[in-house]
Amino acid sequence: MANNDDTKDDSPFRVHSRREIVSLLQSMMERNQLLSLLIKGGSESIITSILDIDDDEDSLVIDAAPSASLNDSILHSNRIGFEALYNNIRITFNVDQARECDFQGRPALKITIPESLIRLQRREYFRIATPIAKPLRVTFRVTKEDGTFTSIVTMMNNISAGGVGITDEKKVLDTTPGRIYEDCSLEMTDNTVVTVKLQVRDCKETKLASGKTVNRFGCEFVDLPRAVLAAIQRFITKLEREQNAKASGMM
Q1: Which of 200, 125, 120 has the alpha carbon at shortest distance from 168?
Q2: What's the pLDDT at 236?
């Protein structure tokens, strides 16, 4: 689940042309395209957009995070990933660091223009952050040592048709990479609940602004039925439309 702009088989899809990269980013900015900004290997993400491009200064200005703690995490990250679905093409790129700046009187972040980016016309790779105001849950049904079952409720951070990012606030889920959970319930904003099988791909312990530590997982869907995949893709499209509407002032 972690964002990876260095995929071994990405050479046919990686763009190195400076002119093409700037042109694409300029077009995304003009259309108020939303991007997912990912840090800590993709375990934390925010929605942002491009506010300004300065080719001469080799810089992009993007929206800052909605909270001081998230901004601090971004500013202290040595690798920052970006993902967007633009004209049904997945765009990804990485930069090393971000700096604080002001843009038209409001706080913003400045990054360098990426040296390369990847364009993949494969929607299943697109990851989108889930609503913070109304958190969605992923519930794991786990067998205990005595053979009985217990439910472990986690919060969903982001979702793609390949998997989900979750937060285990009680730190009770097994963090072993490769661990498969057979019976998981995944909530979606239209009151739909689907049952999925999830495999742990990575886990990172994260300290919140409150001082509390939580486990953030990247989990991959396993043997996903076609009908469930279609429902998840519809959900991702709905989230994207809602976020684009909010960014354009329509919501």
Answers
A1: 200
A2: 86
Which residues, other chains included, contact 47 with Cβ-Cβ below 8 Å and sequence gap of 6+?
34, 35, 36, 37, 129, 243
Asked whether the beta carbons of 51 and 29 are under 8 A apart, the reply is: yes
Pairing state between β 99-103 and 14-15: unpaired
The angle subtended at Cα 15 by Cα 11 and Cα 17, nearest 5°, is 135
pLDDT digits (tens, 9 = 90+) for 127-158: 788 888 888 999 999 888 787 889 999 999 99
Q: What is the pTM of this model?
A: 0.55
